[in-house]
Write a structure and sequence with these properties.
Largest sheet: none
Number of helices: 6
Strand content: under 5%
Radius of gyration: 16 Å
Helix content: over 70%
Order of helices and strands: HHHHHH
Number of strands: 0
Shape: globular
Distance between the termini: 34 Å
Structural class: mainly alpha
Number of domains: 1
């Protein structure tokens, strides 16, 4: 079911975005999925490309859900300023919600999925930063 929702969300995005942006998003998703697959294979063990794609989609969905929960918390409590420990707690919450997608997508322990999320995020960001001339 979640794969159907991801495909429908991508189709909706493809209809409203320019072709160049859509192709850049597809290339980014393929690159990130390949990096997650390689990292997960070395950390967790045998994973498939489908599991890597599913974990990327789930991690982004959980991150979006975490952002919505955080915004609801901010609106409900009236807190608008976070400093020192509060900022670290919010960042830890966002990273935990992001790593939770890898936990369910790869069927791994939370520690292993946290390691996969950290390594693949840093590697993907470095690769996308290095290849930004293709997108621009």
């Amino acid at each position: 079911m979640h794969l159907t929702l991801l495909v429908l969300a991508f189709l909706w995005f493809a209809f409203i975005a320019p072709l160049k942006v859509t192709l850049a998003v597809v290339a980014s998703i393929v690159l990130v999925t390949a990096v997650v697959h390689l990292v997960a294979k070395s950390v967790v063990g045998g994973t498939s490309l489908y599991d890597a794609f599913k974990s990327v989609g789930l991690s982004l969905a959980f991150l979006l859900l975490g952002i919505v929960c955080f915004l609801s918390f901010v609106k409900g409590t009236g807190l608008s300023s976070f400093n020192e420990f509060g900022v670290l707690a919010v960042l830890a919450f966002f990273f935990a919600s992001y790593a939770l997608g890898f936990r369910f997508g790869l069927r791994a322990t939370f520690g292993a999925s946290t390691l996969v999320a950290a390594i693949s995020s840093i590697t993907s960001a470095a690769l996308l930063f290095g290849l930004r001339w293709l997108i621009a």
